[in-house]
DNA sequence: ATTCTCAATGTTATGTTATTACATCAATTG
DNA sequence: CAATTGATGTAATAACATAACATTGAGAAT
């Protein structure tokens, strides 16, 4: 599932997310792209689905919203576990990839013979800037 | 926010979740409680909100669904971080409370001066029974 | 070049999840 | 009793997501 050449819709959605300063909902993206010919939610959801598969967009489950990946990290199928720190004030999201967390979760899962497909870690709180 | 005496609606919702074998959506709960006089989503959502505050019900963000807490653990305001292992096949959810994970996330947050209010950890996959 | 195929797209409708707004009721308390 | 507070009931609507079906477009096979 490599980030091959993106389609027009995928490109537009990705750019929208890239330029955003906070996570966007699918419908917010839709509104921002009406001028570019978007008319229905599916156009957004389909693009998001692919971009998420490619690993260049992440879905934030606790927010029902999406962000462009800011991780220097691999976009490959390796799919490292990523933790998100989401600021309630400014909306800024930082991605954290930490082997210790990943290993520990793997141990805990194995301990109960659980086979993990996908892991979600989201911290909601307040970032340094907004706390200051 | 102690689990003081529950109201009628809260009791009904909690019992519904307790008897369920998998997470339930708010609307599923509503349907199960129609015979008991429930008629509107808010009756469910309001009860869920309180039960969640009390710590005796958890919301699974990646599922938009709810489970009764099965954790022997404290229902107090201490609010330990809980990781959920959610089986895609049978729906069974197990709660994992692990100080190592908690500590590590705390370290990572602190490192970037992030003040965490609430942490979500959800592993989606397949439990031992369903893999066998 | 023509046909085949498959992924992406467009469009409408609908399904699912969650909240706003407002009225009422019941228990407590000053 | 009046006043406050928390729970409830109800209707309407907002927000998030998918199903179903028709069409288009780009590349591969012939």
From TrEMBL, chains A, B:
Extract one GO BP annotation from the record.
regulation of secondary metabolite biosynthetic process
The main place the protein resides is cytoplasm
Cofactors? Mn(2+); Fe(2+); Zn(2+)
Q: Which GO terms describe its cellular component?
A: cytosol
Q: Name one GO molecular function term.
A: zinc ion binding
Q: Which Gene3D superfamilies match?
A: 3.30.1490.190, Winged helix-like DNA-binding domain superfamily/Winged helix DNA-binding domain
Where does the protein end up? Cytoplasm
Which keywords accompany this UniProt record? Cytoplasm, DNA-binding, Iron, Metal-binding, Repressor, Transcription, Transcription regulation, Zinc
Cofactor: binding details: Binds 1 Mn(2+) or Fe(2+) ion per subunit. Binds 1 zinc ion per subunit.
Q: Which InterPro entries match?
A: FUR (IPR002481), Fur_C (IPR043135), WH-like_DNA-bd_sf (IPR036388), WH_DNA-bd_sf (IPR036390)
- Give the protein family: Belongs to the Fur family.
Name of the molecule in the record: Ferric uptake regulation protein
Origin organism of this chain?
Ferranicluibacter rubi
Q: Name the gene.
A: fur
